[in-house]
Each structure stands twice: as structure tokens, then as C-alpha cells.
Design a protein that fits this description.
Elements: E1 5-10, H1 21-29, E2 32-36, E3 52-57, H2 67-80, E4 83-88, H3 98-107, E5 111-115, H4 120-127, E6 141-145, H5 159-164, E7 168-172, H6 178-187, E8 195-200, E9 208-213, H7 217-223, E10 230-234, E11 256-259, H8 263-275, E12 279-282, E13 286-290, H9 295-300, E14 309-312, H10 315-327, E15 339-342, H11 345-353, H12 367-377, E16 384-390, H13 396-403, E17 407-418, H14 423-434, E18 440-443, H15 446-455, H16 459-463, E19 467-470, H17 473-481, E20 488-489, H18 495-504
Parallel strand pairs: 1-4, 1-5, 2-3, 2-4, 6-7, 11-12, 11-18, 14-15, 14-16, 16-17, 18-19, 19-20
Antiparallel strand pairs: 7-10, 8-9, 8-10, 13-17
Helix pairs in contact: 2-3, 12-13, 15-17
The chain binds S-adenosyl-L-homocysteine.
Amino acid sequence: MNRPKVYFVGAGPGDPGLITRRGAQLLRRADCIIYDGLVNPAILDDCSLKAERICVRKRTGDRPFTQDQINQIIVQKARQYPCVVRLKGGDPGIFGRAAEEIQSCLKADIRYEMVPGVTAATAAAQYAGFFLTDREHSSQVIFVTGQEAPDKEQSAIDWDLLARFNGTIVFYMGMGRLDRITQTLIEKGKDAKTPAIAIQHASLPAQRLAQGSLETIAQNCCQTNLQPPAIVVIGPAAVYRKETDWFTKRPLFGKTVLITRDARGNRALAERISELGGQPIPLDAIAVVDLTDTPESKAIVPKIKQFDWVIFTSGHGIACTIDLLRKQNCDLRAFGSCQIVCIGEETARRLNDFGLRADFVPSEYVSNVLADELAHYTNLKGKKILLLRSAIAPEDLPDRLKSHGALVEQIHVYTVQPTDRQISADQDIIKLIQSSQVDWITFTSSSTVQSFLNRIGADILRQNRVKIASIGPITSRRLQENGLKIAVEARPHTTEGLIEAMVNYHD
Ligand code: SAH
């Protein structure tokens, strides 16, 4: 039953969302992942941290591993681990050399399974706004490798057939020989005016395309410096139309956004930025440290229900409090009949995830507004209020609540700490900013600002083109104190507000 198995998984063309559910499930389970250079490393974010990762092939022209070596690695790792994933770009069965790898497994008596993927051709066409087949223009498709020289004697490719073919022809790996491919087709009698499109980095924020005809496409690719990996599509269906180009119309398309929250927050924000077409670059500037094991935290659990109001100022506060209850063998009943305030809709939603509803959410996500509006909503005189929040939160909220006559107690259920400097990652980010490749940097709290300044410094932001997006006034103040100019401030002061502010910004 438990003999090892190798899973040949298609990673899809690039966008990490285009892997199948089965593929993603196996990646999470894998002990070892052997992946190609064409695979987007972001897909590996969800793998088990314990999994060994081996990249076996770099992009065209630079091949550190021969196919034989790859076959050997697969067999060797399958003998070492119960679950090995061989992750291949696009679909493993399309120009993927999966057949050779499977032969080595069979020879070594190693079991395997296949998981197909979205191949580059279908993704490239759809992400460029057309279809490989459509009733009007094309009822047939051919996938061809562009690796074979058209003038090779005894070619495995039937060039006469391709010249006669009236459907869609897709060339994989054709960029290096595009000139000769198109010339051969014209010489064999194909209409030089047949439409053609080349699409580079299909489905990724870096997607670009060149269009033209059989006659002009090679030259147009040269002029626009279109590079591999790219798909070349030839045929009457391969026509670019602005109105069907949904992909590059997405509001953050082509924008690179540096995000500086903790790892979990960065993942959520990155997903949203990608969805809108942007390229997120995560810098895990802070780490959330749980403080639910302190005597103060433990002691508060049986007393929570004695408070009139409990206030949460962040999702982390909620998650850590729920964790604290669990560790003390308690559940949501620990809140008794206390009323609950959440500082914003996002925090209220997080509370809702745990089955609790916020009784009050202020109109603005700022401490003094919260305190004043709550005092307006209910008489705070003599009321007992419990703040379950971060150890580094400023004192203005409790002070303001006290000024309205409330009796305030606070328990620090977590804290945030700057992460260790990762010199090489920081250097990469500095280089990107200096070469004007970063459009935005986002800050979602003053602690992320501080951590960024300690690690990378303010000068780099002052001296380069990158625009700063801040979540709210406290974060902005910290930035301004360091001589930094803010391009946009979110309103409302949520991550969704932050994204909206970047989308609506015009130079
Ligand atoms: N098995 C893969 C193809 C491997 S051959 C699949 O099914 O997609 C490698 C070639 O695929 C590249 O040279 C390029 O022609 C194409 N390709 C892969 N990913 C691509 C992408 N994101 N955009 C454009 N072409 C891509």
C-alpha cells in the first residue's frame, strides 16, 4: 500500500491560480518537489515547509541538468521519499518529455500517477483575448514544436500540411527559429497575410504580445524584444482585439507592488493584488508573536464576562484570543453577554469567521473616533472595557476611553516584532527599487514602517520613483516623520481601501 509514488503534475502556464485542485493537494502533501525552471516559484508557496525542493532546469539556453540526470534524480528521490511530485510547466503531456521520465520510473519499478495541467497554448490565447477555435475562423488546432529546424532532412514535422492547414497552428519553443519557421510556411504556399500573434509570459503580470502576419511577426517580435518563453499562434483566429483584451485591462495590470506586512497578511494582500493584475513582491517586515501563554493572558479568561465591552483592534487580536480560550479549555461562552467592538469591517469579518457578531463598528478606523463614537452610542461612565490587542499599540485609545469615564483594562495577546534582516532578499528589493521596477510600496501599520526603515532605510524611497501607499493617519505620520512623501492614504483605512487608493491614483 505505502510504496512510494511519483506524481507528474502540470503546474499550468504561470499564474499560480491555474494549477488544478488535485495538483495543489499533492503539492501540499509532497515530501519532495522536482520542478522545472518554467514553473512559477509562487506555486511552491503552499507546499509543506519540510519538502525538499529541487529545480532541475533553467530557461531556454541554460540547462544545468540533462534529461538523463533528471530521470535519475526522480528515481533516486522516489526511493528516498513516499511522495514525490514532478512538477512540470503547463501540461506534462505537451512537449514535456514526461514519457522519458515515466520510462525510468517503470524500469525502476516505481509507481506513478499523472495530473494534467493547463497548457501554454490555451492559456496564452485566452489571456490575449482570443480562442484557438471559434466557429467563424477555425475548427481545428495543431500544436507544433519549434525546436526542430525547418530545413532538417526527414523532418518529423509535415510542413506541407501546415502550409495547407486552414485552422490554428501553435508553435511552442518557436522564438529562436521564428524567422525560418514563417519563411518556410510562406515558401510552402501559406498566405503571407495569415494573422499571427506571439505571446510572452502568458497569464503572468509580465505578459506581453506582438501581433502581425506570417510575413511580419518575426520582425515585430524582434522590434518589441519579445523573448522566450513565448507561444506563437498562426491562423485566422489569431487576431488581437482591444475590446476582448480583458487581461491587461485589469486595474493594477503591469504594476509592481512591494508589500510589507507579516507573512500571513502579505499572502492575503498578494492574492488581491494579483487578482487585479498587479505583481506583488512580499517583504515579510514583521512577525506576529503570540502572547497567549503569559500569566496575564491566562488570568483574564475567566474574567472576560465581567466586562461590559470587549474591544478588538485587529484580526490578530481576535485569532490570538480564540487561541487563548482554546488553550484554557474554554470556548466562545467565555464572552458571556459582553458587547463587542471591532475597529473595522475587516476585523468584524474575522470575528464573524469564529461565529461572533460585532455589536459596534466605528465609522472610521482611528482610535479617537472609535472612542468618541462609542461614547456617543452608549454611556461609558463607569463601564468596564477590556482591550485585547498588541503589546505595541499606542496609548491613545485607552486614554480617550478613560476620558469618557470608562474603566479600561488591557491584555496584550500578541506583539509584533521586526523580522531578522535577510540580507540577500533585502538586496534584491533594493535593486528592484533602484532600477525603477517597483511602482508602489504599501505600509499597513507604523510597525511595518519602522521595520522597513531599520532594514532598508528611508533614502532608497526618497531617491527613487516608487510611490508610497499608507493605510491611515498613524502610519502616514510615521512615514512623514522620516521625510517620506505619501502618494495615497487609504480611505477607509483597510487593505481594501489601500488597494482602491492605488487603483484610483493617476500620475
Ligand atoms: N508542457 C508545457 C510546454 C513546455 S515547452 C505546456 O504544456 O505549456 C516550453 C514552451 O512552452 C516555451 O518555450 C513556450 O513556447 C511555452 N510556454 C510555456 N509557458 C509559457 C507562458 N507562460 N507563456 C508563453 N509561452 C509559454
